[in-house]
Amino acid sequence: MSLLARHFESRGLPTLILGSALDILEAGRPPRSQFLNFPLGFEAGPYQDKSRQLTILREALKGFESFTSPTINKLPFAWEEGWQLVNAREKSAGADQRSSRDNKPRYQTEEDRRFAEQTDIG
Question: What is the pTM of this model?
Fold first, then answer.
């Protein structure tokens, strides 16, 4: 998403990413992003909590007005129950067996890598 955001921004289309994986946002360096420290898959908040999701989205969209340079802003929301849900799921049978994350950028093609490095907004 960060690569797409930088591409659109280079053509004058403002973008904003709402993400919950800080390491991925930092590696991707999007022009504007709002970080929400929630489990993956819950970037807008708890499932079916429309009021809270709307509050989060309204706060996130303020980035279009306030960001004057490329940044990752950390939103001030917490959802401990979400992390407890993920921890319980991981302890159950069939837990997620994916590799741990790192900060190494990965690209689908060599052209994607060159474009990302060429448009580095660091």
Answer: 0.69
